[in-house]
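Cross-check.
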Amino acid sequence: MTNIALLTASTEQPGVILPALDVLSHPVSIHPAAAASMLEASNADVVIVDARKDFTGARSLCQLLRQTGIEVPLLALLTEGGTAAISTAWTTDDFLLDSCGPAELEARLRLAVGKLKSAQPDEANEIRAAGVVIDESSYTARLHGQPLNLTYKEFELLKYLAQFPGRVFTREQLLHEVWGYDYFGGTRTVDVHVRRLRAKLGADHEQLIATVRNVGYRFNANRSPEDN
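Predicted model, tokenized:
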């Protein structure tokens, strides 16, 4: 279920403003076309601004909602003739035609909510693998709860490998991904940092970074005696 807040100057019922709403079962609340209405619509998952008649007022409202930090998808409701007025200046996430069918409305709502969720960073900003916890927001790493004193490049190297446990990377790939394409040092740099990183992981856990002979390195979430 998607809670919809419809901001409109019209006194019509939701099913008249957007007939497809009558077919779907999403809860709809109607509010005046003003930014202050968001105080009453705080539980909304999607906000739809009625722009069928007043393009200028609707655009200003959308811009104001965006400036005040709206945290849910913002959609403009237009007539087919009104599509000529919509532009990126409206700052909306999408638009709807008042003639759209239930299937289209459902799809647009689903996509709008899905895009927002995928764009939100993970609250913890953490990568977890084989007892290693990497916090990207604070640039810290822990091994079984114990902090690892890593340099910036050691941290970046560990983070990159841990994001893809079991995947093998050549030294050239790691050099490009961690140091960047504008780095002119040789692949020997990767070997040096791997050696330092293993030393900080300690003898019991150094094989978390496994050597793949004649290829490169991988983060070894499932260690075995055969790993070098």
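Residues 78 and 97 are 5 Å apart (CA to CA). The chain has a mean pLDDT of 88. Passed to J.P. for a second look.
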